Amino acid sequence: MKKDYYLILRLTPKATADEIRSAYHRRALEVHPDVSGGDSAPFRELQEAYAVLSDPAQRAVYDGGADEIPIRRGPAGPGRSGDVILRRQQAEPLTEPRSAAGFEDISLFRSFETCSPSLEETFERLWSNFTRLTRPKAERMEGLQVEVPLSARQAFEGGAVRLLVPARMICRVCGGRGNVGPCECLHCEGHGVLTGEYPLTVNYPAGLQGDYIARIPLDRLGIHNLHLIVRFRPAETGW
Predict the structure, then answer these.
(1) Contact 236, 148 (CB under 8 A)
(2) Which residue of 15, 91, 121, 190 shows the fewest CB atoms closer than 10 Å?
(3) Is the pTM for the entire model greater than 0.70?
(4) What is the number of other CB atoms lying within 10 angstroms of the CB of residue 90?
């Protein structure tokens, strides 16, 4: 029976390329076995669906009713060895809805055009901080580079973004015990930890005429093998 790739991504056949990419990143955070604690099959199926629907030629074949689609997987994007790079489309400055505090909210794994190495490799490295009892002693700290384009006006005025980083935090209500007295903790549903995307606010100064780089440690989120490098890149033209 032919797999319904749109159903796997929770989309309709009219979905745009941007909607497909966003849905893949969102669902990857939901079904990755390191997060869900379940079988890896749903994640592999999700990757298969994205590989087909993100490629215009393969999507056309799939939409035409073909039962078998030859899945092509391109090589990883460019980048120095050891670097992790998340890149937004340079033609589209900050467009995420603003939070109540007035910041731009950007999800690390749902808001970016490309990821090098692959999303899976990057996520597994990040999530190893929460799933392995011990990590290799020789493991090297690496940079998680995030490129954020700014419009000319944003660069002139200055401002801030709020990056949402996947992490697993000890429940503050029960202190990680999973219960409050004799009762199960309702806040974490008895798990003792809360898995989600946690905000980090990054400011950039006014009057930018060139790239501005901010470096942020992630230790506060329990992430010790990656540090965040945010590169704000002003547009050369436009307002």
Answers:
(1) no
(2) 91
(3) no
(4) 11
Domains and their CATH numbers in the chain:
5-63 (1.10.287.110), 84-234 (2.60.260.20)
Q: Distance of CA 202 to CAs 65, 100, 105, 216, Å?
A: 47, 16, 11, 8
Q: How high is the pLDDT of residue 103?
A: 55
Residue 138 has pLDDT above 60, yes or no: no
- The answer to whether residues 49 and 3 touch, using CB atoms and an 8 Å cutoff, is yes
Instruction: Find tokens 């990757």 and name the residue.
Output: 47
Phi, psi dihedrals of residue 150, rounded to the nearest 5°: -120, 145
DSSP type of residue 127: H
Query: In the predicted model, what is the mean pLDDT of residues 191-211?
Result: 88
pLDDT of 137 higher than 80 = no
